[in-house]
Each structure stands twice: as C-alpha cells, then as structure tokens.
Amino acid sequence: MKKFIIRRLLLSILILFFVSLIIYCVERALPTSYVEGRARTMSQKQGAKSYEELLSELNASYGLDKPVLHGYFLWLKDAVRGRFGESWVWHQPVTEKFKSVIWYSFALGLVSFILEIAIAIPLGILSATKQYSKTDYAVTVLALIGISLPSFFFATILKWVFAIHLGWFDLYGIVGRMHERYSSWGKLLDIAKHLVLPSLTLTIVSVGSLMRYTRTNMLEVLNADYIRTARAKGLSEKKVIYHHAFRNTLIPVVTILGNSLPGLFAGAMITETLFQIPGIGYTSYQSLIQGDIPFTMFYMTFLAVLTLLGNLIADILYAVVDPRVRVN
Predict the structure, then answer these.
(1) Which of 34, 54, 252, 314 lies at a CB distance of 3.0 to 4.6 Å from 39, suitable for a disulfide?
(2) DSSP 17-48
(3) What is the Cα Rg of the chain in Å?
(4) Helix/strand/coil (H/E/C) assignment for every residue in the chain
(5) Cβ atoms of residues 306 and 265 within 8 Å
(6) Which pLDDT belongs to residue 22?
(7) What's the pLDDT at 86?
(8) Domains delineated in the chain
(9) Distance (Å, rounded) from C-alpha 243 to C-alpha 247?
(10) Averaged in consecutive runs of 10 residues, what is the pLDDT profile of the chain (328 residues)?
(11) What is the pLDDT of residue 17?
(12) pLDDT at residue 321 in the model
C-alpha cells in the first residue's frame, strides 16, 4: 500500500504539471484581458498616457510580455513556494481572497453532499429491492426529474415560490439586512437560512444520478449466486440486503463518493451566481470573465489537486470496503 501511494503521488505530480501548463496556456489565450480593460480606463483620464503605452507597461509589470512557456515557468517557480501573487480583480493576495470565500462554498457543498447521500442511497436500495413496483416507478421518475432539471431553471422556480410568492427566504445574498444586529447564534442561523434554497437546488439536481447508480448496482448484486445462497440458508431479507448485498454495492458507489471531494471545495458556479452567494464558484466566475489570471490559475490548479486526491482516496477505499480488493 505504501509503495502504491508513493507511485500514485509521483504520477499525480507529473499530471499536475501538464494540467497547470494547459490551464496557463488557455488563460493566456482568453479573449478577455484585465490589463487591456485597465489600460483603456487609465488612458481616458486627463493627462494620461496613450492606451498603447499603458498596455505595454502593464503587460511588462505582469509578465505578459514574455512568451507563454517562459511566463508559465515564472508562475511555477513562485507557485511551488506558495506564492500565487495578487489578484488583479480583488486587489489582495490570491490566497487571502480564497480563504475568505472558500468556507461559504464548503458549507454549501457539505450540506448538499450529506443530503444527497442520505436521500439517494436509501431510495436506490429501496427501488432495487422492490423492482417494477409502484415504489420503484416513483423513485425512477423522481431520479429522472432530478437528472433532467437544469440548476438555473430549478433555482428560479424555488426563488419564485419560496422567496417571491411565500416570502420565506431572501432572493439573493448570504446574510440579511439585520445581520449585524444579531447575536453570534443569530448570525449563524441567518447564514444557514440563506443557504437553504441553494442547498436544495444542488441536492435535487444531483441526487438522481447517484440514486440510479445505486439502484443499478444493487440489482446486479441481488441477482448474484451468493445472494440466492444466502436466502436459501434462511437468512432474513434484511440481513441479506444490508449485510451481504449492500456492502458489495458500495464498491462502485465509492468511486462516485471519492470523486465528489472536489465538489465540496469547487463551489457551484451557476448556483452561487444565481443566488449571489460569495463563495469560490461565484468569485472564480467573476475572476474568469475579467481575465484575472493569478486567481484563476490558483483556483483551477487547486481543483486539479483535489481531483487527483479524490481518485487516490477512492482507490484506497476499495480495499477498506471489500477485503478481497488488494492494491497490487
């Protein structure tokens, strides 16, 4: 296991190098340029230099006048030392801006992730054990609705019903107008209240896939020979399902759960933008459309690290879930 983890980590470093290189090349090729917009704004001031002069100076100050590979290795040299520069849009160090917004996205992602598991896996098992029944059809329809609904459409419906029609929640933001007057506990409840609709949106649009995946794998396991043998021995249906079948169903499900790790920190770009939640998804979107290379590079590289880490965790969990699996 130790040698396997070391090999995977070394391979992950190599993959991360090429992924970050591709991201940097794409960033440099984007039509949106922060320095162009800033140079244009500065050139319009009275007595300012021309647009071309300002653009040349800004490109030189940000290292954009150098070739792409040269610029990438300059970025990489600072990145391995933990220096990711200052955000051009937010005017503060990239890591400080990241720390100030990541926890909103983490709270949103964690709540949605827990709800997704709590709903999808039990319903998937229930649907498989009652195949072709009314319960199975109801769960299947619910799953298909969740898979088919775009997040922006479902979020709009929720806002219209619960924010506009019923007035239970605010349309936008992470805190209410009276937030500063609340106690510490009141402030926490205020933030939690504003996360209800975004969490519900993410849960509904993502629960269907895991539900169908659990049902499919559970049906495959229930038709196996050893399940029929367990039933022939006189074991209770509950023990057959939850002790024998469910444990083997977990093996493919672990892959999805392990790869869900980046989702806890990646932020939900569309959902956060619709509800104007100042999380990492909304912040990275604003940085991307304004050509903020330092922040976008850090964010995309961070997601790549999480993805590689999620795959490694999923491989290790195989051996935990099923003793028959051994890392070779």
Answers:
(1) 54
(2) HHHHHHHHHHHHH-S--HHHHHHHHHHTSTTP
(3) 25
(4) CHHHHHHHHHHHHHHHHHHHHHHHHHHHHCCCCHHHHHHHHHHCCCCCCCHHHHHHHHHHHCCCCCCHHHHHHHHHHHHCCCCCCECCCCCCEHHHHHHHHHHHHHHHHHHHHHHHHHHHHHHHHHHHHCCCCHHHHHHHHHHHHHHHCCHHHHHHHHHHHHHHHCCCCCCCCCCCCCHHHCCHHHHHHHHHHHCHHHHHHHHHHHHHHHHHHHHHHHHHHHCCHHHHHHHHCCCCHHHHHHHHHHHHHHHHHHHHHHHCHHHHHHCCHHHHHHHCCCCHHHHHHHHHHCCCHHHHHHHHHHHHHHHHHHHHHHHHHHHHHCCCCCCC
(5) yes
(6) 92
(7) 85
(8) 98-292 (1.10.3720.10)
(9) 6
(10) 78 90 85 76 77 80 81 88 85 90 87 88 87 88 85 88 87 80 84 88 86 86 82 82 76 69 73 87 86 87 85 72 58
(11) 92
(12) 62
Count the residues in the chain.
Answer: 328
What pTM does this model have? 0.78
